[in-house]
Amino acid sequence: MQWTDRIRQVKILLVLVAVVIAVTSLLVSHYLVKDLSAEERNKMEVWAQALRALNNADEHTDLALVLDVIQGNNTIPVIVMDADGKVNDYRNIQIDKKTAADSAAFVSEYGKKLWQNGKYITIYLGDSPLSDDYQLVCYDESTLLKRLASYPYWQLGIVMIFVIVAIFALLSSKKAEQNKVWVGLSKETAHQLGTPISSLMAWVEILKENYPDDDLIPEMDKDVKRLERVAERFSKIGSLPEPKESSMNEVLEHVIDYMDRRTSAKVEILREFPDYDVRVRMNASLFEWVIENLCKNAVDAMEGSGRIVLSLFDEEQRVVIEVADTGKGIRKKDLKSVFAPGFTTKQRGWGLGLSLARRIVEEYHKGRIFVKSSEIGVGTTFRVELRK
Q1: 3-class SS at 347?
Q2: In 3-state terms, what secondary structure has residue 173?
């Protein structure tokens, strides 16, 4: 539980660090673009003054210097318009094939948009600033500045994609490593159980021959066969057992019979099955383990007293099994973690039961298992869905 909470805290911390880095990058880029925009404005003011000097040139004007300034602008789009909005000149305007046929109208409309956005400088051709003889130098941001303004967003997008791919790869690697651990543990458990179970089976046969009328020996035989079935289940973890068409009613009845003989009389197990036999392609032994695990968790949640209801629904496209109890319920913050390996609310629990149950349902039977509902002090309902 503490390990799971620590992992969640680390994830939250990483997200916060990523947000801080993203915000810092955007702020730095914003101020850089703002400074460059102011620099381009200053260049255009110098360019506008050079244009005014050219229009008011006399014999004392250094035309070479003025022309150098005017012709030196090769990056900033600029449109020169008179007081009536007529385009007198333009530079660095890209005209594509669609607008080539009516380039004059395109440039005029472009200049008006720049003027409406406040990107213009007024130069008065006369001596008085109040003169009606003036021109508007409308300018836009250079291509370099536009690219620089959009660059942080592209950069953040690429970084986010890389982070998502990296996280996905790490999670996949972690999951694969966990699977290897669970598979190895399961197969080793089955191997270790094999020898004592074989010995117990032999001893039971000897007892049957020597004490044929003893009533306890058949019960011992059932328990030994139960151990054999458990070892068989562990041995199948990690492989893909061949599903066979089996009766879901019989599987659930086996679980009920097993739980009835091993739980307190205060635990009532009810069944809600259809009147007919519901058949599904599955590995009956492994799936029986899933339902047993859900029932055992229900008994633990009820602390030895309450009611368990096993419901079987035969729908058009799927078969649904629900296990409902009257236990203490699951907290909302734990609902997303109940199937995580290692998660448990029991003092002596390993937190592997529901994780293996989900693996059996989803990977071996291509179905779904989830918490349908849970309320503190009322109970919990687990739902398993299998395709027909």
Answers
A1: coil
A2: helix
Residues 327-356 as b or e (16 or more Cβ within 10 Å = b): bbbbeeebeebbbbbebbeeeeeebbbbbb
Relative orientation angle of helices 284-302 and 248-260, to the nearest 10 degrees = 40
Q: What is the β-pairing status of strands 120-124 and 318-325?
A: unpaired
Directed axis angle between helix 63-71 and helix 2-55, to 10°?
Answer: 150
256 closest CA partner among 310, 301, 220: 310
Whether 360 contacts 290, CB under 8 Å: yes
Read off the pLDDT of residues 112-167 as tens digits, 9 standing for 90 and up: 898 888 888 888 876 655 556 788 889 998 888 888 888 878 877 887 787 788 77
CA distance linking residue 79 with residue 134, whole number of Å: 14
Residue-wise pLDDT tens digits, 170-204: 777 766 766 677 677 777 777 778 778 888 888 88
Coil/strand/helix, residue 28: helix
Exposed, middle or buried: residue 204 (CB in 10 Å: 0-12, 13-18, 19+)?
middle
* Paired residues of 124 in beta bridges: 134
CA distance 254 to 226: 11
Q: How far apart are the first and last CA of the chain?
A: 36
